[in-house]
Amino acid sequence: MLSSGRTHLRSHRGVNALIPLLLLAAFSLAPLVYANHAVIFQMMAFMVLAQGVNLLYGFTGYLPFGYVGFFGIGAYGMGIGIELFHLPGLAALLVGALFAVVIALILSPLLRLSGAYFAISSLAASEVLYNIVANPALTHITNGPYGESLVQSYHPLTSYVAMVVLLVLTTVLVIVIKNTPFGRALLAIREDPVSAEMAGIAVVRTRTTVWILSALIGGLTGAIFGWHLSVFYPSTVFDLSISILAIVFTLFGGGGTAIGPILGSVVLYGLYNAIGISAPQYFELIYGLLIVLLVLFLPGGVVSLLQRRGSYVP
Amino acid sequence: MLEYSIVAGILFGVFFGFMALGLNLIFGVMQVVNLAHGDFVVLGGYLAVIAYSAGHINPVVSLVGAFVLFFVIAFALYFPVIPRLTRSKDPEMLSLILFFGLSQIIEALDVIGFGNNPRSLPLAIMGAAPWHFLGQSYQMAWVITAIVSLVMIGATYLFLYYTRIGYAARAIMGSREEAAASGLPVAQTSAIIFGVGIGLAAMAGVLSPFMIGSVDPSTGLGLTTIAFAIVVIGSLGNPLGSVLGGLVYGVSVMLMQTYFSSWSDLVPYLLLLIIVLAKPSGLLGKGVRNA
Predict the structure, then answer these.
(1) What is the C-alpha to C-alpha distance for residues A23 and A107, in angstroms, rounded to an integer?
(2) Treating both helix axes as pointing N-terminal to C-terminal, what angle do B186-212 and B2-30 enclose, rounded to 10 degrees?
(3) Which residue in A3, A38, A306, B177 has its CB near the most CB atoms, within 10 A?
């Protein structure tokens, strides 16, 4: 298994290496040709979030409706790092990441649940986080419902670069996981945890590792997002539609691949920008219909069209 | 204040137990979590508001109309969707995602059809005089809602325990394969239960403007989470479990609102997390987990 994994990675090394390089090139050059930098930045943020959801849902089958909890807590960790500890931006990012990892450790018992129980409980957990952060009782730490203002550390260029780096690293991580024994252990657990355990896979440890990685990605995205925005409220960074969009992008492209979430984010976020901002209800209607049609006719996402023909999908 | 919180908690609890009943039935029989449950409740609410404002139809009359209309809609929705799902590789997860898509569709259509503004019904249509009990007074609309909810829960109980379809439904809850092997009409029964479940959700929706103040398109997901918490607190497939879950929820919310009001929004979510981690089979559960 180990050796076949290595050869697998080697035989498709070209394609696999191309994806992060293309992303790096595209998002380094995009601000030069497209003036609306906020759109490019948000598209990257959603791409990273979709990869985070993909890591969890695509590889383990756990659907995190409450994924936005990590995003929000990352943004608030960033805010606390700057406002309370007076750290510079990059160091405060680490506080955001740390917060997300700690929350993931606290919530790791949720992994004992499966299917709908996990999905809805993770939603409940993110609502609990939101209500705690937004509570007027915590105004001295989080500024409660009045939001964070990080204008003194506002660095649009640094935070943009940080997001590009995070996107590239996350994509590399997903490709590496997909092509190594760790990724196949995850797939084995997804298909049948009992058999996986009997085959000698440390189910609980493997699952918890990927849960924490996914939380770290969500937390870092939130932290960089909060930094770039520099003024945000609990209701913006804990907005459930962030999880929802990240999940829809992943499902549309196809989970369990590196290219699926990227494809989903480009196509659907592009669509969102075309119609979603002026008439969000029509966009919601379209992606609602898309979800229903995908589940009924194309549960593997768009990339499964290629997989069905036997092509290798990175 | 304590008496008020407990009595109001019971009135609300009975209503929320009724609101969760349809989710419980569908989950029990089809292993499908209807994430659009709350959106059907909201649609019921819109039906009541529009019937009242356009035709001065009393919500008690709308109840019947809502049940019939949504039973028919759901029955028609069943055949193109659910059998296809149950044949697929991962029915539980795919159905969760599919109904999530449906909930987004309904929410979008609500915004397109009725706008984003919250809509409500005047409490006075159910009688202006308050109900006095143990020195406190309560809205008459709450009392009537609680009574209607109790009647409907009772009717559902009788339906499940004393009719042939009810027998079949409970057999399918126990084991789908064995029910099919014994020659029970699994598909038809499931379709009827699907219709009844969504019909009950819409009925609860007709009463919901009295209990939650108003309905707007985004209310649905929160209601679904509350309903799911209530179903898990009680136990799957047992209508009495829904009542128990509703009461636990209603009384906890009211007590929190009285004593720690800024934290009361946390109640349904914390209750859900505590129960799924401590006793996932629910308070009346028999130690078997179905999902």
Answers:
(1) 32
(2) 160
(3) A306
Q: Which structure tokens are listed for A23?
A: 């992303």
Is A6's pLDDT higher than 70?
A: no
Quick one: pLDDT at residue A11? 66
> Could you report the per-residue pLDDT of B205-216, keeping only the tens digit for each?
999 988 888 889
Rounded CA separation B188/B171 (Å): 13
Q: Is some CB atom of chain B closer than 8 A to the CB atom of A239?
A: no
What dihedral do alpha carbons A155, A159, A161, A164 form, nearest 10°? -160
CB contact under 8 A, A120 and B273: no
A123 and chain B in contact, CB less than 8 A: yes
Q: What CATH number does domain B2-114+135-278 carry, 3.30.160, 3.30.70, 1.10.3470, 1.20.120?
A: 1.10.3470
Measured in angstroms, the CA of B263 and the nearest CA of chain A are apart by 8
Average pLDDT over residues A166-189: 93
Longest dimension (CA), chain B: 58
* A38-96 tens-digit pLDDT: 899 999 999 999 999 999 999 998 999 999 999 999 999 999 999 888 888 889 999 99
Which of A61, A128, A287 lies nearest to residue B269, judging by beta carbons?
A: A128
| Phi, psi (deg, nearest 5) at residue B36 | -90, 5
Question: Rounded CA gap, A62 and A203, in Å?
Answer: 14
State pTM to two decimals.
Answer: 0.88
DSSP H helix total and E strand total for chain A: 18, 2
Interface contact A106, partner B, CB < 8 A:
no
Confidence of residue A5 (pLDDT cuts 50, 70, 90): very low
- Residue A117 Cα, gap to closest chain B Cα (Å): 7
CA distance A123 to A119: 6
Distance (Å, rounded) from C-alpha A253 to C-alpha A249? 6
Mean pLDDT of chain B: 86
Other Cβ atoms less than 10 A from the Cβ of A143: the count is 20
Tokens of A103: 């929350």
Question: How many other CB atoms are found less than 10 A from the CB of residue A90?
Answer: 14
A228 vs A246: CA distance, rounded Å: 19
Domain segments of chain A as ranges? 2-239
- Which segments of A135-202 does DSSP mark as H helices, in order? 139-142, 156-178, 181-191, 193-198
Q: Give Cα A36 distance to the centre of its chain.
A: 23
pLDDT digits (tens, 9 = 90+) for B47-62: 999 998 888 888 888 8
Residues of chain B whose pLDDT is less than 70?
Answer: 127-128, 237, 280-291
Residue A161 contacts B, CB cutoff 8 Å: no
Cβ atoms of B16 and B197 within 8 Å: the answer is no
